[in-house]
Amino acid sequence: MALANGWLIIVAAAVVIAALGIGLALGLRSRGQSTGTDRARIARAERLRALPAFREALSRRIIALSGVLLLGALTVITAGVVAARPMSSQTIQPVNTSRDIMLCLDVSGSMSEVDVEVLTVFEELLDGFEGERIGLTIFNSSPVQIFPLTDDYDFIRTHLESMRESFDYVDQIPEHWVGTLNGNGASLIGDGLAACAMGFDHPDDERSRSVIFATDNEINGASIVTLEEAANYAASNGVRVFALNPVEGKDADVSAELAAAAEATGGQAYGLRDTTTVGDIVEQVREQDATELRGEAQVVWTDAPDLWIVVVSIALLSFVVLLWRVRL
Fold it and tell me: Which long-range contacts (C-beta less than 8 Å, at least 24 apart) are formed by 283-287?
């Protein structure tokens, strides 16, 4: 860039010198032509040149011609600066939105209201997502992946809407129960969390990985994987768990086991109460991710010719006006 700018300055200077040379040549030519036979001879011309009015007019003429040369040079130089593409720098700190969020929903009967709220919140958030990938896995006595991590938001919206509507069912087996009743028991959260943690692909990519884990923590039966084992597996793969527990009663605490499992992954457990909504919790999760995904400060260079374009425009206009006045 510096080399290119140097050449442009040299070219601009050459143009100015050439313009001065052409002007001088034309002036000498005109002077030579004026010395021909058509030249009017004036006696005692030195007396005319000695007059104050003549001297004042000559000074104005010299100043005007000097102004024409200066404005011409200024126009050429500033045009060269514009051609050199002046740039300005700005330091920014980008926020990387490359995060993966797996919705992991316990679809046992007692969780219907919370599941619908989670699905509704994410439907509303889709318009603001840029680069996030969303996945959905549901479980009861066995886990089922509804759709894998994807950033196809139209596809996500269609499936979230279909799943949400399935909770208002009249069939004997609604959509959100299909495949989730193949085990022995109900709300086997260890198996459910393990299945959700296994849904994250491309482990070498630098992406934030979070599980929104909605469950009432009311285990009924023996799971293949314990909650502690599932949490350890998630932590070993860089997956953070944010648990949503619909606790009954304002003074009830979130299950200690569920809270410990979430915190072991670097996440947190939340209890849903009258003053806390799913939307509030999800927003907190997104803010935590955004804070951790802030990139290093970067210097961004952009073209900034605006000031120089104004200068060259004014200089060119002044040059034309002054040249017109001098010719008069």
Answer: 285/101, 285/210, 285/212, 285/242, 286/125
What long-range pairs does 74-80 form, CB within 8 A, spacing at least 24?
A: 74/315, 74/319, 75/312, 75/315, 75/316, 75/319, 76/12, 76/15, 76/16, 76/19, 77/12, 77/16, 78/308, 78/311, 78/312, 78/315, 79/12, 79/312, 80/8, 80/9, 80/11, 80/12
Provide the token pair at 70: 């200066």
Digit-coded pLDDT (tens) for 223-262:
899 999 999 999 999 999 998 887 654 444 447 888 899 9
Element (H, E) at 39: none
CB of 257 closer than 8 Å to CB of 193: no
Task: Give CA–CA dist 278/244, Å, rounded.
Answer: 8
Residue type, 61: R
CA–CA distance, 222 with 242 (Å, rounded to integer)? 23
As a whole number of angstroms, the distance between CA 135 and CA 207 comes to: 14
| pTM assigned to the model | 0.60
Residue type, 18: A
The length of the chain is: 328
Q: Rounded to the nearest 10 degrees, how much is the dihedral formed by the CA atoms of 277, 212, 101, 227?
A: 170
Q: How far apart are CA 95 and CA 126, in angstroms?
A: 18
